[in-house]
Amino acid sequence: MKSQTALFSKLVKDSMRPSVPVVTLGSTCAAAVAAMQDGDCSAVIILDAENAPVGILTEQDVARRITFNLEEDTPIDDVMTAPVQTINETEFLFHAVAVMRRGNIRHMPVLGEKGGVSGLLRLKDALFSVDERLMQQIDALTRDENVDGFIEIKQAQIDLAAQLMEEHVPVPEILALLTQINSDIYHRVTDSSISHMEVIGKGSPPVDFSVIVMGSGGRGENFIFPDQDNGLILDDYPDDQHTKIDAWFIEFSEHLTITMDRIGFPLCTGHVMATNPLWRKTRKQWREQVDLWSRKRNTTALRLCDILFDFRSVWGENNFGAELRRHITEVCQRNKSFLRDMEAEDQDNGIALGFFDRFITAKDDDEHKGMINLKQSGSLPLIEAVRLVSLREGNEVLSTLGRIDTLLMQGHLDRDEHDYLSGSYHHIVDLILYHQIKAFRAGEKVSYFIEPDCMTMREKDILVDSFKTIRRYRDRVRSEFSGDIF
User: Is the whole-model pTM more than 0.85?
Assistant: First the structure.
């Protein structure tokens, strides 16, 4: 079943031909054909003096334009297809498939990080094992790059999630796919926001930067309508340039967050967004911020760490994110009392299971009275516990199941604990996604709350066992970090 989601996670570089013949402008047709033959390839890319791709010649071009029509010393410039459509090797493969199908393109040069040709993507390679149903999904997820198009993509996500769930694809795989699509939307809205800044006369970004997402987006565990937990890591710049540079990023961030809200990513009520200077910092400032939070260790600082520590870069300089990730790991490794205080703070999120295995439901919330918050009182206590131990063990994996798997390999969990914790996570996220899709289709508000009576007896029994498993593990973690036996 995993193959049903694999296509949407692949990058162009995963399916491109890495070795591709090239010739320069002014070369003869004979030289181009010889390059194709020597490279055993169905196309040759034509480069200019700067080694940038300016044209392409395919085997169909040879058959239709050259054979029996032109002399072999005819310049390739006269017969190549130009300008040529290119794509970056780090683009998602399904986007390349959509572009090639819509443009009737069979071969597309692939560009590497520095802008040079790194390979060739052939449509038949990209379409290998893609059936008509997948093609329909690709079309739905690659609409026009404007707000209306992104809104359609957001709606298509829900249909895709429902379809995959009906086909019994494991829900964590579906959540990972939803996150991939959301990250792609972030990437394209970022590009659009940069273009907007240029159009209104603000110019290009004054320094390199990275857009990061936190929380479920960072872990690869997005449900249907995640809110905006985002921020910026800016390259370091002189202090006397702050007013000018930050002004650009303030306006950019406002455009980014407003656009994401219109698409279907609600503004974060806690203001965890790039518009808030707390989440918009230079590389050096981010490192200093983490150091400060780890020293202060008050309730606010610990909760901010809880938000940040599951971050992931979705646009720009990924090495900025890698640098911050290493720093966070180092801080946690050398400051065990910091982790102990984080564990104590996490105890506020209790398991929704009371005496005699009865569910604890909301009482003071009129909108959700009598319902269980499966995120706050179910999955989150597990997420926090395995994250905490992962930080202690120097484990930089971000997904909850990935952390559980790694903790098994590191010897922190035995096989029984691993299976119980993994099974508990699976059951809770299954219930959340199923009821979110059901609510959306019924025109109701999508949330993490569920009425106990909406579950079957079997679902209730498994949920009780899942809550017990998470509570036992939380007790173990508390004992390891605090030394308390009870």
Answer: no
